[in-house]
Design a protein that fits this description.
The protein has eight helices and no strands. With 148 residues, the chain is mostly helical.
């Protein structure tokens, strides 16, 4: 979730609850809160992010199909568009952003090959966002927990 999109909107600091959650992948869709922030908002216009960070969201979703390792999933946002560009950047040590060199070290060649062979579309993202929104609505407003 891009807290920068909503950090100055009301209610004050509503995004902190969501940005500090420990996300875990599982069959059960629910929020298990491990932070100390109360939930102050449960609905967000995620579609507004598509034009701003949509490509990064797609890359993260694509990597999320392959691994639950949060470091590997998050580095996907900085993957070059093609495996050829990835290999050239790795060989030269020159990435789009300087900090990427360190981030990319957590990716095995096998995972990189699978990433570029995997498809994750806008339809997949929209379906996942719908699930996320439904789960967000299970959280009790003003509390640290979800409905049981």
């Amino acid at each position: 979730m891009s807290d920068g999109m909503w950090e100055n909107s009301r209610p004050c600091e509503h995004w902190k609850f969501w940005s500090d959650l420990d996300v875990q992948i599982g069959a059960e869709c629910r929020v298990v809160c491990t932070n100390s922030y109360a939930c102050r908002k449960t609905a967000y216009n995620f579609a507004a992010l598509y034009n701003i960070v949509g490509e990064r969201m797609l890359a993260i979703g694509r990597m999320g199909k392959l691994t639950t390792d949060s470091k590997q999933v998050n580095v996907a946002a900085y993957m070059p568009p093609t495996i050829e560009e990835f290999r050239a950047s790795k060989a030269s040590g020159k990435w789009r952003y300087d900090f990427c060199a360190t981030y990319m070290e957590c990716l095995s060649d096998e995972l990189v090959k699978k990433f570029y062979a995997t498809t994750y579309t806008m339809n997949d993202l929209k379906r996942d966002i719908a699930t996320i929104k439904a789960v967000m609505l299970t959280v009790r407003y003003g509390t640290l927990d979800s409905y049981s």
